[in-house]
Amino acid sequence: MVEALEAVERKKRKPGRPSRLSLPDQLLVTLQYHYDYRTQLQLGVESGLGESAICRLIAHAEDHSGTPAPEPEQLSRIGPPGIAPQARYQTPPTIAYSPLGNLR
Fold first, then answer.
1. pLDDT for 41-62, tens place per residue?
2. Could you tell me the residue range of the domain that residue 67 belongs to?
3. Residue 89 and residue 47: Cα distance in Å, rounded?
4. Do the domain assignments include residue 74?
């Protein structure tokens, strides 16, 4: 995937301002966005970029990486590692809460 992004960068006529992140880091940010369910704001804070720059970076990497972005159905099947699929989406039990406690 990195090779596909490097090929796109080499084909540019006018490369413009270089990115603060290297191509492998850009791909890593894109994968963290899709597979770790991180927000663009979280990724921007960690990488030192703004939220809009992260949005553009993800869109560019998805368009030119050679691999399509995963569909939401695929992501829900994959899920976080170490969690069984049936346990992942169970609703938590409801707990009756009274601010005054149990008064009789």
1. 999 999 999 999 999 999 988 8
2. 2-10+20-80
3. 31
4. yes
Task: Please tell me the number of Cα atoms within 13 Å of 91 on its side-chain side.
Answer: 3
Q: Is residue 43 part of a domain?
A: yes
Q: What is the pLDDT of residues 69-94, one digit of tens each?
A: 556 555 555 555 555 555 555 555 66
Q: How many CB atoms are closer than 10 A to CB 44?
A: 19
Domain annotation covers residue 104:
no
Residue labelled with tokens 């850009």: 26
Residues in the chain: 104
Distance CA 23, CA 38 (A): 19
57 vs 5: CA distance, rounded Å: 11
List, for residues 3-33, the tens digit of each pLDDT value.
Answer: 887 888 888 888 788 889 888 898 889 888 9
In a domain, 41, yes or no: yes
Claim: this prediction has a pTM higher than 0.70:
no
